[in-house]
């Protein structure tokens, strides 16, 4: 004797309510905000370009969850309504050799999905890699074993040289750039292949020595959308001290960046030499700039002690 339709509908309704309650508990118990949920595990970003990638990721995950829901629904539906009947004398459910509509569905739909995914992937990639002809700031980034030099060709010191910052074993180099402005990074290596990587940019690019081959792209642009300090690393194994080849990106508001460059293009009255990055930021601190934002030393990483006798075993 079969289950009455009313009873079956009641059971399905209860199951739906239980599933909805479980989903609600799962979302609220994690303590995640709505913005965190929509990121689906995508880490927080600091640039406009990274946010475009996050948007693409969100919609790709939603599409994947939709496909998964359809597949799970079909599996459960088949298991629930096409299982062997209790009093059936047939060994197997009714068999079909061909089902043209179903075969077209399982072939055409995946092809359409792949084409749509490819289209939005290409659109997002093109948008992220797009470069403006006249960026607001240009930085020449030079990687070397095992540190970085950042030079600003559009800003000159009193002695006629480009404003420049060079890292050392005792000082993490600061790459100071303006927030909410387009910054172009021109990459070059003096020795081996390095890789310019800022995790919050969600983007990295290899830094090649001359001569370049295979039309390797040596530049990219970003627009950092908030003030802050972001650690940068070399992401290409380049030698003994590769892991210690860090730098820090310091994003300042446009007015603070302009003040920073105003100082960098002047001589420090106390030394008679052009302001260094640390001296300029320290001066801005004295003028009222936030202590963390205008710290004269890196706040996201620290120099590596190169004296092996001064270090202890890590375990």
Automatic annotation (TrEMBL):
Membrane topology according to the record: Multi-pass membrane protein
PROSITE patterns given in the database record: COX2, COX2_CUA, PROKAR_LIPOPROTEIN
Signal sequence, start to end: none
This protein's UniProt keywords: Copper, Electron transport, Membrane, Metal-binding, Translocase, Transmembrane, Transmembrane helix, Transport
Gene3D superfamilies: 1.10.287.90, Cupredoxins - blue copper proteins
Keyword Transport (UniProt): yes
Cross-referenced Pfam families: COX2
Coiled-coil region(s): none
GO biological process, one term: ATP synthesis coupled electron transport
EC number: 7.1.1.9
Catalysed conversion reaction: 4 Fe(II)-[cytochrome c] + O2 + 8 H(+)(in) = 4 Fe(III)-[cytochrome c] + 2 H2O + 4 H(+)(out)
Similarity remark: Belongs to the cytochrome c oxidase subunit 2 family.
GO CC term (a single one): membrane
Protein name: cytochrome-c oxidase
Main location: membrane
Location in or out of the cell: Membrane
Keyword presence, S-adenosyl-L-methionine: no
Known function: Subunits I and II form the functional core of the enzyme complex. Electrons originating in cytochrome c are transferred via heme a and Cu(A) to the binuclear center formed by heme a3 and Cu(B).
Domain Cytochrome oxidase subunit II copper A binding residues, every copy: 134-263
Spans through the membrane: 58-81, 102-123
